[in-house]
Amino acid sequence: MNLVLHQFNKEFRYLWPRWLVFLAALLADLAFNMEWILPLDPEGVTMVADMLFATGLWIIGWWVALSTAPEDEAEGGAAFVRTRPLPRHALVASRGLVWLVLIMLPMTLETGLYLTLQHRPWSDVGLGMAEELWATSSMAFWVIPAALLFRGWEIYMALVVFFAVWGASYGRTVVDFVFEHLSIESSWRTLPVLEPARFIQAAWWIGPAMVLLLLWHQRHPWHVVKRLSAFALLLLITYGLAVSPLAKNPFDEPLEQPQIQQLAQAHTPVMRAESFRFTEGVDDQLRSLLNVSAAVEMDGLPRDVMPFWTSSKTIITQNGRALPMLPPEKTRTNQPHMINLWLFEHSLSGALNAGGREEILAMKPMAGRGQFPFSRMEIPQDLKTPVDVDMHLTAVWARLRELGRAPLQAGARILSPEAELEVLEVRKNVGARGESSPGQVTLLVRQSMRTLSDRHAMWPAQPLLTLHAPGKKLLWQNSMQGRNDWRAMRLGWVQMIMEMTFGEVLKAGTGVTEQNLGSQQLVWMKPDYLGTSRHHVQVKDVSLQGNGSFSLGGLHSITALHQRENPRARFLAAVRQRRAPSADAPIEEAARYVASVYTASAAYDQRRHQDPPGQLVWPGDDREVADLVAPFLLKHPELVQRLNFVTESALSYEIMRSALVLAGVPGFERRPGQPIYQRAVVLPDWPGATQKFESDLWLTDVGNERMTDAVVEMLKTRSDDPMRAVLRSREPSLEKAWRNFSARPAGKALRYLCKDPAYREKAAAEVSRQYGGLGLTVRFSDRELRIIIAQALMGDSAALSWGLRAIGLSREVNTWESSALLEAHESLFGQKITHRQLPQFIRDCRAWTPESFRYDAEKMLWVPQANQ
Amino acid sequence: MTSDTSAMTAGRMHGLSSVRDGAARATLCAPPLARLWHQIRHEWQFQRWLVVVEWLLLGGAALASMEEKPGTLADLTLTPAAFLALLIIGRSVRADAPCNTDVMSHTRPVGRATVWGAKLLFLTFTLLLPWVLQALPQFRGFSFGAVEWFGVAMGTLLPAALLGTLTAALLSHARSMREGTALGFLALVLITGLVVATRNLSSQRDEMLCGAGVAALVLILSALTSWWLQSVRTSRRLSWTCLLLGGATACALPFAWGWDWRQVPRLAYTTTPLSLHIGSAPASGGQVLWPSLHLVGLPPDHVASVIALAPVSLDKAPWPPKGVISSDYTSVNTTTGIESQLWRWMTENHTEALAAHYPPGSLWLGYPVDDPRGPNLAGVLKHTLKTEPKAAEKPWRLRVAISRMHRVFSRPLGEAIREPIRVASPTPGYRLDFRLGMLDVPSYGGQILFSGTLKHRFPLLVPEGRRARIRPLGYLPQQNFMAVLHSPALGEVSVGQEGEDPTSPEPAVFLSGHSRRANFTLPHPRAQMDISGLSLEKWVSESTLDLWWPEEKGTLDLEITAEQMAEALAAENKLRPVSR
Description:
The complex is a heterodimer.
Chain A: H1 2-33, H2 46-66, H3 78-82, H4 88-117, H5 122-137, H6 140-149, H7 154-167, H8 170-181, H9 196-219, H10 224-243, H11 257-266, E1 277-282, E2 288-295, E3 305-318, E4 321-322, E5 325-326, H12 339-345, E6 361-362, E7 371-377, E8 387-407, E9 413-415, E10 419-430, E11 436-450, E12 464-469, E13 474-476, E14 480-487, E15 493-502, E16 521-542, H13 567-577, H14 587-603, H15 623-635, H16 649-663, E17 676-682, E18 690-696, H17 704-717, H18 721-728, H19 734-743, H20 747-753, H21 757-772, H22 782-793, H23 797-808, H24 815-829, H25 838-847, E19 853-856, E20 861-864
Parallel strand pairs in A: 6-13
Antiparallel strand pairs in A: 1-2, 2-7, 3-4, 3-8, 5-7, 8-16, 9-10, 10-11, 11-15, 12-13, 12-16, 14-15, 17-18, 19-20
Helix pairs in contact in A: 1-2, 1-4, 2-7, 4-5, 4-6, 6-9, 7-10, 8-10, 9-10, 14-15, 15-16, 17-18, 19-20, 19-21, 21-22, 22-23, 22-24, 23-25
Chain B: H1 2-13, H2 18-29, H3 32-66, H4 71-95, H5 112-135, H6 146-171, H7 177-198, H8 206-231, H9 236-256, E1 275-278, E2 287-290, E3 293-296, E4 302-311, E5 330-332, E6 339-341, H10 348-354, E7 363-365, H11 377-387, E8 396-412, H12 413-416, E9 421-424, E10 430-441, E11 447-459, E12 482-487, E13 492-495, E14 497-498, E15 504-505, E16 511-517, E17 520-523, H13 526-532, H14 536-542, E18 544-560, H15 562-575
Parallel strand pairs in B: 7-13
Antiparallel strand pairs in B: 1-3, 2-3, 4-8, 5-6, 8-18, 9-10, 10-11, 11-16, 11-17, 12-13, 12-18, 14-17, 15-16
Helix pairs in contact in B: 3-4, 3-5, 4-6, 5-6, 6-7, 6-8, 8-9
């Protein structure tokens, strides 16, 4: 031991000036992390400075540890050492002592001092020091052999290699390049400063290889280029291991895995065919693909736990043949660090709802439909045949834990054992970039979080700051994060300052004003990773179209020319300009002409534009165009079956009516308005008695196919018998209505079904099920609003309240939103209103509560209390 | 050749052995060029394997840069190539540095000046020129002329020469490996600093750019001189002084430089006289700016884009005022007043200008695009009144930018979908690379998708052309192009839709560069396919794909009196749809 200490003393006599440089760097690092220099500033140096200080400290530490006295340098140090009465193990031990005493201990003491100065509990100070000791000791295997492998100027080359591979991004670039070509999954977030535990593990695993390299070099000396290359390779392998799935963070361990297993076994996940969506997208290589998403239902779960779903394997078969799947998105994995991303897409209000389920609703920018993106597939040739889906699902379970609440005021603080938050500034009507932005509220907050590995406050999921308006019981989540700066990521207690912006806070309907902003609340929540469960689900007969998937058959192009002029007149002119075939032209020629009319119709789509909703900007109809086309349908009735009913149904019905009038089919006349069939038929069995038929041509319940067949028959026979046959067959079918209702619940259909006791029960259960699956937000698609309205029609006052709050927060009345709101009014109150009355309806909804109405169970309507 | 003579004397004084003496005498007596060649061969023998690796890396980088997405592979090859080049320079300089006590450079019988000259030539031909050559292929297809190619060569050569000479000058001062290592580090730090300082030169003023170019040249010359002084004259103090003086001058030059050779005259439109017509469309034809305001006198294929329409103040206030709402190039948030540049500034007017190139009566199809021109004249006046209450009583000025549409590509669709295509824009420095992405994208009734990338590369040391590019309201307009598909059998002309994608900067020291994804789609003739049974193959074989690209022709100001403005507003009111 004396020899070891003796050698250490000799080393120290040479190293002490360099060690002072290291101590100075350590002091500067402490001063930086304590904000004695360069205090936190959102417009300042950002996280790069923190990374630079950490990297710089490590580089200087390595420099000291690799430095050796000049007399040890000649012939790789062998010449001098051989002549001294010093065993080799004592030399190695003294190098170890250099690392331990000169580097490890000061860095550990810095951690302890920092945590003490930050007033962390003694248990955290001890743990922080132990973790720093563990991190620095992982490098012992590297620096001790490296000090004997590289001498003199070589150590600077080694430092350059170390910096290039670990400090700069070159190592990461190489690892990503290799992993991508070998299709190995890598953690895109992993960087030494963010997840040091992974790198420490990898350094422990690969460190012994450095010892082997040294032993090899001593028996078969290598040129410096070979040694540096081997060193770089080992560093790259370590980096690769660190970002691979083999390395784990301690904080990625689940908190309640056994309970989650039990929970998962007790509840079976259900995926319904109608919940699948196939939307078009492109991958990194710009190849078109289909994104497959769906909702997973799991009834009876405790309110406070949330499963987030991914698919580890998806097989989609069509007619028994497996369709080609594509690799999932790189940023979508089943790792617990995805929890923050999932929470961004889901309402957080469930965690705050202590009273009723719908008590607090989220002001999310997007509707929370509970859809999860599962897989990606090549676009199949056959998009009409349904597919079967076989999925191996992984559920990552999380629970939101409230860290604390504070009023929305400057100076407000939230303190918890693992994280602290202080509001430094509240900026009203200011956006994320400091610009004037009506309605937005930007906060400047300071956050401090525990980053020790046993209970890490930042990973795998970061705390979420939300804004709660108790008056209207609304919750703003997904703040937009602006400029930020942070310190001391590696020291166990990170400090950061950041700007967070909440949109649409100070707006009509929210109840939040500039005056009462201070009485709103900030709620800070921490998502805890509970565990992971695996499931297998099979779903049959899934449609690749519909339910929000992309649709086929539409004509979406519009003209590039003359948009500023009257498009209705332009459409007619364009059709007249086309060279029409002769009356006796063959069907191919006639078909080309009819098709060109449809192309022109899509091109002049602006003629159908409404502003305000319900009022045509360019009044008129397409009757003259229909009259130009009708003779060709009369000549070739089969063409009716090729007409477009997806996006051009209005034109198609107009053309069919013109053809029927031209053919002289009884019951059809040239009159203004919608195409109508009107006929009184003498009943042969009842002399003198007549039966009246009256219907428009828009028989959506009949289906286009049957309707066009009937029109073809009428054109051929010049008789209206086929039309009457269709009308007679239109007996209302509960079964059909039920099928439509379960896919698309609507108030009118619900009332119809509820007339039958058996269907009433089924419909109520279906509405309740779909209602239970809704995200707790006030931002909806029209389908989701219909579900809430349907639940309200079952007499649920909470659903009525939800519907009124959602309508009261409707943003702008556009054509799509307005039709849903008009329908909602009619469904709830049994009265139609016009577009002009909509703004007042929205304003009324802000004031109305369920108490403003009574429920008429017989009519399934809500009646204003004043009408009692 | 004083230094050569002194080297010979030094050789004699050291007393060479008889055999070596003979060889040395032979070398000393050889003509200077032979000695130079001898030293170059000596350098090659010493460094050949490293140089071969360097060439392989540079070749890889050149190949990677020609790929559609160079990305990682180019990074992986070019970074080690740069470090290897510095290592080769370091080894070469250190091998014969007079102050390097580890080598006997004074006893070399070729003379110090020859050694120095040979090293310079060796490094120039083995490192510098290959470095410049590897960078050139990526600049093909950008419509560059001789001036631009000269700028590209200089833009690549100057930074490389700067890094090389700086490294050589610093390392020539190292007396030992320890000093060599320290100075090597210093060189790395200086290089990193220079790269960081000059990375965003493209966003700087032109004077500063020119100054930076001159500064680079000064620094290269001072580093070369410093290296020469140290290696040939062995004057350490003078060498350091030269390097430091050069460095100080180079630091000050970008800020003090006054001559902007990049400045070129503004491009004013003078091709034809233009005038405004107020009221409904004139019988003689003209371009519609607003329904009641037409521009008359434009030659075929020429299109006007509105830069600003705003009242003119009698005081000397700058025109156009801030927050102009009528520009095709910007959009203004009416609530916040924040102005932002629009990426797509081409309007329906550009499509109309192409109509003459296709059969009359063709049905023109396209996709819905937001009209960048903003509100009608009444809306413009209403917005202007907020900041200029007397706008209605003042004269107005209309500034337009005229561009000419060029057909830069025309090929049958069947050919266009077969292979990757590269198209140069009429404006030097832009190139569109595209290829078939998918023939049958099922959404929106069926579309054909072309995957494209719009690239920009331009040397910053030469003017951007013979005339300055138009900068409406201070913004350099984004490059827009128009894909047009003509199907004569159907009598249809379809205009492609281009998706908006952010531009990714690819900065270099004296070169500006960026690229953006420029995918475009063209609609299938869905109605013809559904109703008349037209097949995709038949449609492809009967159609032609054209690409049209606007070329800037200049700007023009047109004055409008208060009375004319009132007349235009009244006329617009009459032309509105009934229900509005």
